[in-house]
Amino acid sequence: MDYTYAPGRNHLFVPGPVNIPEPVIRAMNRNNEDYRSPAVPALTKTLLEDVKKIFKTTTGTPFLIPTTGTGAWESALTNTLSPGDRTVSFLIGQFSLLWIDQQKRLGFNVDVVESDWGQGANLDILAKKLAEDTAHSIKAICIVHNETATGVTNNLATVRKLLDHYRHPALFLVDGVSSICALDFRMDEWGVDVALTGSQKALSLPTGMGIVCASPKALEATKTAKSVRVFFDWNDYLKFYKLGTYWPYTPSIQLLYGLRAALDLIFEEGLENVFARHSRLGKATRLAVEAWGLKNCTQKEEWVSDTVTAVLVPPYIDSSEIVRRAWKRYNLSLGLGLNKVAGKVFRIGHLGSLNELQLLGCLAGVEMILKDVGYPVKLGSGVAAASAYLLNTIPLIPSRI
Ligand code: PLP
User: Fold this and answer.
1) Where is each Aminotransferase class V domain found (predicted)?
2) Where in the chain is the domain with CATH 3.90.1150.10?
3) Is the shortest distance between the CB of 198 and ligand 1 below 6 Å?
4) Which of 6, 23, 51, 370 has its CA 20 to 30 A from that of 319?
């Protein structure tokens, strides 16, 4: 059976992969090229320079790796740590859980700090661990900036403050897969040692590129890190950076041109405007959830995420049914609840190439589905709350002023 055709556009509201802008699609619609010709290194050089801007780093070294977020995690860990090294890692949802699982499988000694799903990383416990660790046995703090499964954003500035306060030399490794390029991210200011994202999230590209950025301290750590690494070895990349040819193996030419177009669009809009747009989309979504009389999975205002909202449903409703119906009936793709929150939450992704009216369409769809599944929602209530807020906050489109 062919599932692909449905009239009109698919309303893609999963928190990644996200909508790809038309200019990016067109930029990628091209033949393969010889990556050893002068053209591809010249393009790569501009990408490596410009990608640093989305991490807000001038001192970091970026790597554009043919992989996904999961591979980017592995690259961050294996290039900087040795088997047996102690990491402190926060378990707050499915993606932090998967990263912890990877750390364990790579042979690290993972000190897991667990919180309820819906809460942020427990930084009081981190403070205690750092204070106690006078021998500096902790080699890295691993934290997911934005936990995509629960819609929780962690406070990275506080992590850096704690490390500085206790003069602790641990590396600071950050998963920015559903934050970088959508939420304000300050690699240099926060002293992040490795930050990473995946192309299919806020950069609004196809899946297939892991973008990793390493601080000078992280690069130094590669010299003593004994983890086995082959495909992800940064030193192979650095060797080719020096030669000016950039690639230790074959890159996806189409993704490189796509990244060029994606960065151009982001810079044209303005990175701060991109963040402001995500902040509007996040707030509008939360206002709709409140108007529906439903609760956000995120337990405190300080952790709310501007890229994804996980909506808790009453116990008599299976949230997976909402997701199923959304796709079958309205061509609306919502995110499922994962693992511990399966059946309990559905997720509205509001990141990447997306505008306010698209979001209102999604919210209207959610209202109809809620009614379909027997939740007593007033049709239009969420859309009204969101649009009343957006009415006063949407600025003119920068390129049309
Ligand atoms: N980290 C976070 C926060 C994610 O949301 C995801 C995927 O959604 C991943 C890591 C894993 O990325 P990938 O599926 O690209 O391997």
Assistant:
1) 14-291
2) 11-18+271-395
3) yes
4) 6
User: What separation in Å is there between the alpha carbon of 33 and the centre of ligand 1?
Assistant: 29
For range 241-248, the mean pLDDT: 97
Element (H, E) at 390: helix 381-391
Within 181-336, residue ranges assigned H as helices are 216-221, 234-243, 253-269, 271-291, 319-330
Give the closest residue to 258 by CA, choosing from 20, 80, 11, 93: 20
Tell me if 148 CB under 6 Å of ligand 1: yes
> What are the tens digits of pLDDT across the range 168-204?
999 999 999 999 999 999 999 999 999 999 999 999 9
For the domain made up of 11-18+271-395, give the CATH fold. Aspartate Aminotransferase, domain 1 (3.90.1150)
Token couple for 344: 């309990």
Task: Give the distance (Å) from ligand 1 centre to CA of residue 76.
Answer: 14
> How far is ligand 1, taken at its centre, from the CA of residue 18, in Å?
13
**Structural domain 22-267, CATH architecture:** 3-Layer(aba) Sandwich (3.40)
Q: Using 50, 70 and 90 to split pLDDT, how confident is the model at 1?
A: low
The token pair that represents 162 in the structure block: 């704690």
Cα of 241 vs centre of ligand 1, distance in Å, is 27
